[in-house]
Amino acid sequence: MANDYGITGPELQYLVAGKDKVNDPASQAQWASKKLVWVPSEQHGFVPASLIEDKGDEVTVEIQETNKRVKLNKDDVQKMNPPKFNKVEDMAELTCLNEASVLHNLKERYYSGLIYTYSGLFCVVVNPYKRLPIYTEKVIELYKGKKRHEVPPHVYAITDQAYRNMLQDHIHMHGFKIMIVIALYSIETYNLCTFW
C-alpha cells in the first residue's frame, strides 16, 4: 500500500488510512446528489440522511438506512462532510466541524485500526483494547526529528515535538514535567514509557 509518508510494514495499517474508497468519484457524486446530512438517532448517536425539503425551521429528511421520511427541527440536523474528509488525520481540516462529523471521523478511523487522530493541537486517542505493532523502535525512529505534518498522528509525534521544543527553548531538563490530560478513559502508559 502506497502512502505519503514512505511507511512500509505491518504497522502501516495502524498509522495511515487507505484513501482508495475515500476519494472514490462515485462516493463523491452520491454525497453531492443526495444532499447528505447527519440526524440524531437514539441508538446510534447520528445517522446519515438525505435532505428532502427545507421549510424555514423544519426540514424533511430520508434516513438512508431505512428510507423512512422524518420531519425535524432544522437545528437538529448537522451538515455532512464530503467523502474526501472521511478518516481525516486532523479534524481541524473538516469543512463541517460539528459533533456528528467529529464522532463519525473518530469511529471510521477506529474501525480501520487508526487510534490516533489530531484535533488541532491535540492528539485524540481511542483505546484499541489490544496491542498494536506501532510502539516499536522502528516506529520511534520514524517520528524522531519530524514535524507533525510529516508523519501520521501518534503520541510519538507529540512527545518528539515537546522534546525538541525543550531543547530549542533551552529549558532546564532537571525536574521538567509534561502534563498529560487523559479524559474519560486512560491510554496505556506504555505509549510514553517506550519513548522516554
Automatic annotation (TrEMBL):
Q: Which InterPro entries match?
A: Kinesin_motor_dom_sf, Myosin_head_motor_dom-like, Myosin_S1_N, P-loop_NTPase, SH3_Myosin
Specify the Myosin N-terminal SH3-like domain's residue ranges: 32-82
Cellular component, GO, one term? cytoplasm
A GO molecular-function annotation: calmodulin binding
Superkingdom in the source lineage? Eukaryota
The record's listing under Pfam families reads:
Myosin_head (PF00063), Myosin_N (PF02736)
Keyword Amino-acid biosynthesis present in the record's keywords: the answer is: no
Q: Which UniProt keywords apply?
A: Actin-binding, ATP-binding, Calmodulin-binding, Coiled coil, Motor protein, Myosin, Nucleotide-binding
- Keyword Coiled coil set for record: yes
Query: Where does the record place the Myosin motor domain?
Result: 86-196
Family of this protein: Belongs to the TRAFAC class myosin-kinesin ATPase superfamily. Myosin family.
* Name of this protein: Myosin N-terminal SH3-like domain-containing protein
Organism from which the protein derives: Helobdella robusta
